[in-house]
Amino acid sequence: RVNQSFFRSTILSSYNLKCCITGLSITDFLVASHIIPWKKDESNRLNPHNGLCLNSIHDKAFDKGFITVTSDYKIKVSKYFDDFSKEGAVLDLFLRYNNQPILLPDKFPPSKEFLAYHQEVIFKK
User: Fold this and answer.
1) Which of 75, 111, 109 is nearest to 94 (CA)?
2) In Å, how far are 3, 22, 28, 91, 114 from 123, measured between CA atoms?
3) Cα 100–83–55 angle (5° rounding)?
4) Exposure of 3 by Cβ count < 10 A (0-12 exposed, 13-18 middle, 19+ buried)?
5) How far is residue 58 CA from its own chain's centroid?
6) Contact 85/91 with Cβ under 8 angstroms?
7) CB contact set of 9 (below 8 Å; sequence gap of 6+)
8) What is the DSSP track for 34-81?
9) How would you write the pLDDT of the chain (125 residues) with one tens digit per residue?
10) pTM above 0.90, yes or no
């Protein structure tokens, strides 16, 4: 993807190289995640307001709609996980973050409009 490395470096640096959900700072596990997917909105592919710094497991969960970030910057976990709530990994990786605020970037805050799109169109309620 053209300019993907620019998008990644912009997002990761604005989040001070930390996952906005967990605070993980091991850069090999960090992803510049698109709020509105790359294939859905060509005009905002490189817009830093369309990005979140996530670790790879939360990036996958976000892309698939198992988690979202609300327009007041809180993590919302899908009811999909209710069936797995007794699993320690599900509790540790997902349920404990429900309704918790994300770490906000120093610049390029996530667009509330893009977050609303993710919550309405992609999130599995």
Assistant:
1) 75
2) 27, 20, 26, 19, 12
3) 40
4) exposed
5) 7
6) yes
7) none
8) ESS-TTT-GGGTT-GGGEEEEEHHHHHHHHTTSEEE-TTSBEEE-GGG
9) 556 788 999 999 999 999 999 999 999 999 999 999 988 888 888 999 999 999 999 999 999 999 999 999 999 999 999 999 999 999 999 999 999 999 999 999 999 999 999 999 999 98
10) yes
Letter for the amino acid at 125? K
Query: CA distances (Å), 41 to each of 31, 50, 65, 117, 123, in order?
Result: 19, 10, 17, 11, 17
Give yes or no for a contact between 63 and 39, defined as CB atoms under 8 angstroms apart.
no
CB 71 within 8 A of CB 40: no
